[in-house]
Amino acid sequence: MRGSYGRNCEHKKWRYDDLVARMQDKEMLVDWLMAEGLIAGGRLCPLCNEKMTLTKCEDRSDGWKWGCRRQENNKRHKTEISIRKGSWFEKSKMTLEEVLKLTYWWCQDLDQAQIKHELGLGESTGVDWDSFCREVCEISLLENSEILGGEGKIVQIDESKFGKRKYHRGHHVEGQWVFGGIEQDSRKCFLVAVEKRDEGTLLPIIQKWIAPGTIIVSDCWKAYCNLENHGYEHRTVNHSVEFVNEDGDNTNKIEGHWRHAKCKLPKFGVRKHLFSTYLAEFIWRYTHRNEDLFQVFLKDVKQIYAPTMVN
């Protein structure tokens, strides 16, 4: 490979033209993907454990493959491995260019229908890739999670129901309860889907996500009544009579967080086992809002998949 196109090139902010420039030909694209660590820069043959050779391959859309042809002890073997093996691209039938375009547009928050139209994707393919991208967000957040609060810091907590009210007999509300917290002077936050809002459910989540010694501000929900017995300073706002208590405490930031999240999440049709991935996407976008999301996403992909020489 020629290795001449911006190895580990730093970008202030990716533009679509920057991506297109890396896809002028197959050699340039594969060289860039290797330089960025998105596909492996080398492979060891699974039969002889020697380094494989990267060769052109006209019958594959990638244009290149790993190969090994050796003769040892009067025996000859021939081994071929896709350059995608172990990478973000491995299980897709789309071209490398199409996967990169889809990833870029997803990071720009284009509507799924727009992406499907531009790439000519089927319904199921578009849904699957949307899910794959959300899963990257979820794994990244789990692997890089930070504890909120600490001595002298304030965290606001609250619960909210996601989903539309359906006016059946008894005015039953269908949807998903979500419990969350947000640090008052930062973008650090968490959102967790819960089935119950009792102390037995919420307290372990608080202890997992919020450091002891934190000042926790909440409404007067009974599940929070024993927080001071678990190492927290607890301040409350009685929303039936006030929005800000006499000491100036409020839950405005977490309530704004709910409004923003509900605007971004689908109103209907989210299966409960997928709900956490939608929450993860929202938090990922919120946390990295002032960054280049495409760069951040590629960095997360490299950490999760980390293709190596060994198969």
Reported for the largest beta sheet, the result is: 5 strands, mixed
Helical fraction equals 25-40%
Molecular shape: elongated
By DSSP (H or I, 4+ residues per run), the number of helices equals 9
Structural class: alpha/beta
- Overall strand count: 8
Distance between the termini: 21 Å
As a percent range, the share of strand residues is: 15-25%
The overall average pLDDT, rounded, is: 89
* Uncertain parts: 3-9, 169-173
State the order of secondary-structure elements, H for helix, E for strand. HHEEEHHHEEEHEEHHH
Question: What does the model show?
Answer:
This protein has 311 residues and is α/β, with parallel strands linked by helices. Helix content is 35%, strand content 17%. The protein has helices spanning 16-21, 26-35, 96-107, 112-119, 123-143, 199-209, 252-264, 272-287, 293-305; strands at residues 53-56, 64-72, 75-82, 154-162, 176-183, 189-194, 215-218, 233-236. The strands form 2 sheets. The protein has a 5-stranded mixed beta sheet, sandwiched between helices. Strands 1-2-3 form a 3-stranded antiparallel beta sheet. Helix 5 crosses helix 9 (293-305). It is elongated and about 85 Å long.
